[in-house]
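Memo subject: From amino acid sequence to discrete backbone structure tokens
Keywords: amino acid chain, backbone geometry, structure tokens, three-dimensional fold.
Body of memo: The sequence and its backbone structure tokens, given next.
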Amino acid sequence: MKIIRTDAEWREILSDEVYQVTRNHGTERAFTSPLNNENRDGLWHCACCDTPLFDSSAKFTSGTGWPSFFQPISPEIIEERADTSFFMQRIEACCAICDAHLGHIFNDGPQPTGLRYCLNGVAFNFKPNS
């Protein structure tokens, strides 16, 4: 089920940084998210709607400065959109439940998918397994 809120509602419930990245398609500076070095077992939840999107078993070290994964928990939980901003052609990764901007998808990841979901740490809440 899609979660739809007004801009004012999102501004009220999200920090300025989370709002800027997830609602305005921003990007956090590389190597600034503590989640970039998060290697415990657990689930990565959308910071806007708390939907689990990625399992830590799909995380890998890409060296790019952002948390990277080779696949989401399920293909339908991530919506892919064409992004032609900044004179580039990229694929944007968004939460399929609340439309939060998470980052971008590239074709230079490890097997088994060959994909790299290059994501903003601020777009997530990490919940470790107990």
